[in-house]
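Collaboration report, partner site 2.

Our partner group contributed sequences for two proteins of shared interest, and the home lab folded both. The records are reproduced in the order in which they were received, starting with the first partner submission.
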Amino acid sequence: MPVNLSAPDPRTLLPVAGVTLGIAQAGIRKAGRKDLLLIRLDEGARVAGVFTRNRFCAAPVVVCRQHLSMIDPGHGVRALVINTGVANAGTGKDGLARARQTCTEAAQLLGGTAAQVLPFSTGVIMEPLPVERIVAGLPQCIAALKANAWGEAAEAIMTTDTIPKAVCRQFQIAGATITITGIAKGAGMIHPDMATMLGFIATDAAVSQPLVKSAVAYAAQRSFNCITVDGDTSTNDSFMLIATGRAAMPEIVDAKSTEYAAFRDAVTAVAIQLAQAIVRDGEGATKFITVKVESGRDADECRKVALAIAHSPLIKTAFFASDPNLGRILAAIGYAGIADLEVEGIELYLDDVLVAEHGGRSPAYREADGQRVMQQPEITVRVVLNRGKAATAIWTCDLSHDYVSINADYRS
């Protein structure tokens, strides 16, 4: 079961004016499951995204980037089509043709051009996309379009997820109530190098295209780029932000305004909640672990240390076993790649327990205290470098027997 995570109540997932969603069971990989989602946008919506840096990026990622550059940038997107089951990655020119056919077929049904449609896929890599099933399922999606289908949409993009992930918040800008609703999928192949998942956040806020683009990059860096389950960066990572402009408010155009800061921070808060839900639902996860690195010279070295800890299979398996074999954490700090690190100045805490200082075990540390913390479902590892004022946080999980079983059986 996910770590302190429950399925969202669909009644709390408020519609976003200018967005409708339709779901179909297209049988893309398995029969009888929701596996095709169409998100239709009213004219005038602004759209921006960030994508995987994996050089073997999937065909839909290539097509999305091309389409976003072809239209009045991001301003003109009318639909997003998302399928699960087959990733359409590692499929060469044929995969690109199938992704483009998806866009063409959706555009013919909805009106507009293929460049106004963005495709997304997730699932098994290096298998051909059954585009004929997508084409057959699109009319079902269109017939099912409605504004309050965010809960079903969250289910339709799942792969190995055990639970749908969706968040909704409202906040005030210039006297107007703004709605932000988002969904994400991810449980395995999660490693921060853009987003490591699929995520879609929509808002009715009126925001200029450059600031939508700025906000999605800002949010990704502080949310999805701060999670890791297994150290594997997906071929299909995509995180999209949609601003429909339907709220009764002046358009935000100034990056230095308090209105933009409020908008950016609200989007980031939703993205963080979705990102943490991915870690809580990490394949086989039994514990949610926050790794904080403080008092570094800069954010980069803090991030190096945090990721070294969060990636280590030895550390993650120790957490699964509730075994306070905490010398493994010191070893990870030491190999994080900071050449001039002075180990004598480092302090290591496990929640409130001081584990190490002055280059070794703290005289006050007792293994029973470490054991007590390790048995908790939520744990914080805090490393104080005592080199400066920078800090960062990474979210991860333990590594269990079930992770191996899930991935060994993934295609069956």
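Second partner submission, folded after the first:
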Amino acid sequence: MTTVELVALTRGRLAGRERRMVVGGPLVKAAVLVPIVERGGPALVFTKRTDHVGSHRGQISFPGGRVDPTDAGFLEAALRETEEEIGLPGTTVEPLGALDDTETVATQFIITPWVGLVREPVAWKPDGHEIERVIEVPFARLADPAALRVEHRERAGARHEMYFWDLEGGDVIWGATARILKHYLDVLAGG
């Protein structure tokens, strides 16, 4: 799939569905960006969090964070946080649509993911405090069913599927980031 095809499919699928929203409650509101870049084909951008950040230490995540009271909305929060974390100017991102809200159990967040196309070349600048490095993963690798590992875990008496993508160098996409990625791939597949 080319980047142009992925962008068109993403825009169409997200516009043609009703998004699941989690409203209210005690959970902290957060927003992330699911950035698409052109690298001889589409790639998604992830961050590796530092080992000294407050939550999700050392994990692979999409760039983003808490919604600030001064943010006009979830997209603005995702763009602001992404620029702070990895130096991606919000003006270079073409928003394609929002995915379903995702809750985290351990850290008590409601995450609103926005998919966006990065229209211009960018030099990643991880902030060093929250973000150790930026990781670009070819979309074809993530979309390959053989790359997804599914495990079942018990939590609060219920059985849950957990998703994992093993990356080069021992990094693993899991947790809320893996659930967001799986949801995005399912939406693209028409599910």
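Feedback sent to the partner group on the second submission included the following. DSSP finds four helices and eleven strands in the chain. The longest strand covers residues 28-38.
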